[in-house]
Design brief:
142 residues; single chain; mainly alpha; 0% strand
Length: 142
Amino acid sequence: MPATTSSEEGWLTRTVEKIPVVGYVASAAHAVAGNGDQARRAAENCTGSTVTALGVVTGAVMTTTATVGVVTGGVVSTLATLSMITWGVVATVKTLVVVTRAVMGTVTLVGKCVKAVIAVAGGSDCTEDGERKNVDNMEKDS
């Protein structure tokens, strides 16, 4: 007798036997019907497909976990880099403030020195502070 779609040897029966976990139901049905060879075949097919499915799921989970780890590592390293850059910028700005103050102090000192030299060299138009006297006052002092 030729195999039909739903018979023990039909394509639908063999397909159901290969579905992970579900194939064990088909194996039990074969065993209840007294078909020991078909029950063993269904159990073997189902075991193979179930192990394969578990491997696929495990691989997907591991890949997802690895991806999350990589992304997390990337985020942490980015934050660390931004922190270092921020501290570098802050340190640079602090250094620039110190340098600017030093330059301003030097310019002020040089300016006072120049005024003092002018005063000593005969520039009677400068006060003791190095400030220029009013021209009207200069003529009265002479």
